[in-house]
């Protein structure tokens, strides 16, 4: 049953699938999501605290707890800090662009709807499917990875038992109500956030000698940052690791999807975006500074994909925190479930928005009494099967390719956000409106969308040069071509 505080908005007429005219743009500041969405009502059940934690939870995951060690070992201490700073700046520019669009048009179709309106209907169709693929590609691997970690604690219990248990839990949280999903994601994300805060706090205390640290009689301070030179492996690794770093920041854009179900989006979305991105910058960069100051950079990447060799576990052990490995294992399981929870939410809303525009059968926009798209959620769960099977059929190959697919598709979605905001702002000004008329305006236009888009393109190019990512890249390109082809064959000449 839905929460009494949840608000609904009525169905209405979708925008045309063509480019928006200047007159249309002029009226968008008064256009509610009710005039953009079609179909039965979704629930406006999310508050600012939900949006902030959904964004933080989407970004803070295994990419930080395990992947940070690889970035440090490749780019060196200073290089890794610069890499995460650059990644944070890119994410911030993209989120500013998204904020401007999401406040003007808080719709569940989010980037797909923006691309459809401000780039072209075929691109909007492609972006919607691409974002669905982004989350669905890794959904199964998250359940499998969480199950494998649980099996380390309970070896007598089958991995499939844990997999089905976690899948059932995430499915239930998504299907029950938007409010329950938001609350569950809030608490799952809070576990990760508190862990990061404790890690940075204890790490800084060890760095400045307030608490003892293994192998150091005096405060280590920041000598390890440059003991092998500023860039021991050169400048290039900073850019070579950008795909890992950008993927670590992915998930922040979930605010755009959640805006379609947020209370008072004009107030909550801008506050949530600013709060989330600054916290992420502090958490990510602060974490990397602590690791680099306390561990030799070569050590950070040794078997870093294993929980026991996570730089978090090593630092906690050296500080003297008992059961460090078990603590981080629990946090990583929480991170995996949080990512799966958010991913299922985002992917199902993409399918719902396609159905609402008659680009999928109407059954996909069927809602439960509590306002959740039940069929879209079920079908997305089935899309996770390849990831579930990854542990039994060439796990390394399947996992790396699925990760490559997710990373590339996410960057393409970010590019579309920058292009959509660039076109939106130009049309807004041409229509006679001013920047002051916007409810939320991305600063430094046109520099913000241009730089955000250019850096994302550079990240895509770095993926092409990485042999381990090339299969995923080719699969993504073929998927994009298939999306455009299917749109032109089935929907180009139909009004949606």
UniProtKB/TrEMBL annotation:
* Keywords, alphabetical: Membrane, Transmembrane, Transmembrane helix, Transport
Q: Which residues form the signal peptide?
A: none
Which Pfam families does this one have?
AA_permease
* Recorded superkingdom: Bacteria
Bilayer topology term = Multi-pass membrane protein
InterPro entries noted in UniProt:
AA-permease/SLC12A_dom, Amino_acid_permease_CS
Q: Can you cite a GO biological process for this protein?
A: amino acid transport
Q: What is the scientific name of the source organism?
A: Acinetobacter dispersus
| UniProt subcellular location | Membrane
Annotated protein name in UniProt: Amino acid permease/ SLC12A domain-containing protein
* Membrane-crossing segments per the record: 50-69, 81-103, 115-133, 153-175, 187-214, 234-255, 276-297, 327-347, 367-389, 401-424, 444-465, 471-490
Mind telling me which GO cellular component terms the entry cites?
A: membrane
């Amino acid at each position: 049953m839905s929460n009494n505080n949840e608000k609904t908005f009525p169905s209405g007429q979708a925008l045309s699938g063509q480019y928006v005219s200047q007159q249309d743009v002029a009226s968008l500041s008064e256009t509610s999501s009710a005039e953009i969405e079609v179909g039965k009502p979704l629930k406006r059940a999310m508050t600012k605290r939900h949006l902030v934690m959904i964004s933080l939870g989407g970004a803070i995951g295994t990419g930080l707890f395990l992947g940070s060690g690889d970035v440090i070992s490749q780019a060196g201490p200073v290089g890794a800090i610069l890499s995460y700073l650059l990644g944070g700046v890119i994410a911030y520019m993209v989120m500013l662009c998204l904020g401007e669009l999401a406040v003007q048009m808080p719709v569940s179709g989010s980037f797909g709807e923006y691309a459809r309106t401000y780039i072209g209907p075929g691109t909007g169709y492609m972006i919607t499917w691409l974002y669905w693929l982004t989350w669905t590609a890794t959904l199964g691997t998250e359940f499998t990875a969480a199950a494998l970690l649980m099996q380390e604690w309970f070896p007598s219990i089958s991995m499939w038992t844990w997999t089905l248990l976690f899948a059932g839990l995430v499915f239930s949280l998504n299907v029950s109500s938007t409010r329950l999903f938001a609350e569950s994601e809030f608490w799952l994300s809070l576990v990760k956030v508190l862990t990061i805060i404790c890690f940075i706090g204890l790490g800084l205390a060890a760095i400045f000698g307030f608490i003892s640290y293994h192998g150091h009689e005096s405060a280590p301070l920041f000598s390890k940052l440059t003991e092998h030179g500023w860039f021991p492996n050169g400048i290039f690794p900073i850019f070579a690791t950008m795909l890992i770093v950008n993927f670590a920041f992915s998930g922040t854009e979930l605010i755009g999807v959640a805006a379609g179900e947020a209370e008072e989006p004009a107030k909550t979305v801008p506050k949530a975006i600013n709060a989330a991105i600054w916290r992420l910058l502090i958490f990510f960069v602060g974490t990397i500074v602590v690791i680099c100051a306390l561990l030799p950079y070569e050590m950070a990447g040794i078997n870093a994909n294993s929980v026991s060799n996570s730089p978090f576990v090593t630092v906690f052990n050296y500080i003297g925190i008992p059961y460090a490995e078990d603590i981080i294992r629990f946090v990583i399981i929480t991170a995996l479930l949080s990512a799966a929870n958010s991913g299922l939410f985002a992917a199902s809303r993409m399918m719902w928005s396609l159905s609402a525009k008659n680009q999928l059968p109407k059954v996909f926009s069927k809602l439960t009494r509590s306002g959740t798209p039940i069929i879209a959620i079920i079908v997305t769960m089935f899309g996770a099967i390849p990831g579930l099977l990854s542990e039994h059929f060439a796990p390394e190959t399947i996992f790396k390719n699925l990760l490559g697919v997710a990373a590339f598709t996410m960057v393409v979605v970010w590019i579309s956000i920058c292009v959509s905001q660039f076109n939106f702002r130009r049309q807004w000004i041409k229509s006679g409106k001013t920047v002051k008329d916007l409810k939320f305006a991305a600063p430094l236009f046109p520099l913000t969308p241009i730089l955000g888009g250019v850096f994302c393109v550079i990240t895509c190019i770095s993926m092409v040069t990485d042999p381990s990512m090339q299969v995923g890249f080719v699969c993504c390109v073929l998927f994009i071509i298939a999306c455009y082809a299917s749109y032109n064959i089935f929907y180009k000449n139909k009004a949606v």
